[in-house]
Amino acid sequence: MKRTQIKNALTALILLISLSAFSQKELKNKVVDFINLLPIENASIYIQNTTIGTITNADGKFALNVPKEFEKDTLVVSSIGFKSYKTPVDQFDNTLDVFLEEDVASLDEVVLEAVPRPKTGNEIVQRAIEKLEVNLPELPYLQKGFLRHKERNTKEFKWLIESAITLYDSSFVSGAKRNLKINVDEVRKSYDLRDVDSLFSYSAYLKEKTRVNLKLKNLNRDTIATKSLVKAIKWNDTRVNGLKNLFKGKLNIVRNVNMKRALFGSDMLENHQFKLDTVLVDDGRKIYKIQIDKSQDFINLETKGIFNDGYIANGWLYIYWDTFAIKKIEYNLVAASPAQKTRSKSLFGTQLNHKLVMTYMEYEGKMYPNYIYYETPKLVNVGYKTEGKVSDVEKERYNKEERYYYTIQEILFTEIVLDEEKIVESLTKKWDADIFSPKPYNKEFWENYNTLLESEEDEKLIDDLTKRSSLFKEK
């Protein structure tokens, strides 16, 4: 064999080995309740003893890329209240649905404990808060994840951003404002087809930046430069829906219990009551299901420049029986005070102002964020609504189908980095948490990156948004 042929053969062999090392096996399927045959949403799908995983969408479907090195490991499909399904990765069948059976907790065992076991919902939650220092990370870590940010009105999607992000946290006991960072690594999709017309944002922006307090009725869209309006809208986007607010604010309920006036802080029972509902099973472990209910005081998120007061909370908490680690939070804030009820009805057409779901994964004995779902209503196309006769243009502006938006942010974390050298190295780079800044698309990066599978409804709306975006760019 000639030297050139040998060189080519070696090159091909090295390439083949390289491709094999980085090849992935795609697992995709649907998770279904065995009894009623309904899809199970937010079921966990992961490789045992790793942080590689995903969750099911509203249709019970999922897709997961698994590196070839883990093909002999165990795939786990689990959901609270059901028996887990386990199988080797290389034996998973993509053509057959995964059926989960209900699981019932056994409470007849007798265990002698040094510390009496709490019996009421309030006592269980208080014990879980006391245990956070033990159950949450005590050392710095990085997490890699996927973000989907979307806005829509009642008819169609108006805005979509999909990004790969990195989260750094120094530890649970450190304050989040100074010791938590977020970076947007890559962007997969970024479509913004919102109409540039939000006098409400412009008015708030003027008040914040220039201390000029102009009433909406004194503002005229025709006299405001579009670039000034865009600047105000971007400022409002960051203020309301920026990642820093989500991670460093009160709604990061478990992580930020030590912050001033935290939702689950020392005065937690003044605006929350917790009722033990039942005990379920999660992947073979008993878990408390606890109802979140209102108490005597209203809840205030204390968002700067926004009336975010006058709420009551409802939802559910899931806390492990053995460790008192918090596995899942379903948390809603509903308008309750007269002022907030009036505001929410007139501005948004809904009383539900904040809907939050947070789940946690256990890794090496500590609980890390796994999945976050955050939904909040939003008002656009706002101007002064006259009580007199209005023009056709003004009627369109006040059309509820066009006027009211709601924003949804979903984050799935799929990798935890505990290596000290990698963490220190990451901190030497510039961190940028701005999800609204466009970035070039890196096809190679996204080929094997785990993302959240869209629901069938979302997939259609996103396809429609993509087509409308293409037409918009051609104009």
Describe the protein:
The protein is 27% helix and 32% strand. It has 475 residues and is α+β, with helices and mostly antiparallel strands. The protein folds into two domains: 22-100, Immunoglobulin-like; 121-474, no CATH class. A ten-stranded antiparallel sheet has the order 10-9-8-17-16-15-14-13-12-11, sandwiched between helices. It has a four-stranded antiparallel sheet with strand order 3-2-5-6, with no helix packed on it.
Could you give the topology of this structure?
Blueprint: H1 3-22, E1 24-33, E2 44-47, E3 53-55, E4 61-67, E5 74-78, E6 85-88, E7 98-100, H2 121-130, H3 132-135, E8 141-152, E9 157-169, H4 176-179, E10 180-192, H5 199-210, H6 226-241, H7 243-248, H8 268-271, E11 273-282, E12 285-293, E13 311-320, E14 326-335, H9 338-347, E15 352-363, E16 366-379, H10 392-397, H11 400-403, E17 404-417, H12 420-426, H13 443-446, H14 456-474
Parallel strand pairs: 1-7
Antiparallel strand pairs: 1-4, 2-3, 2-5, 5-6, 8-9, 8-17, 9-10, 11-12, 12-13, 13-14, 14-15, 15-16, 16-17
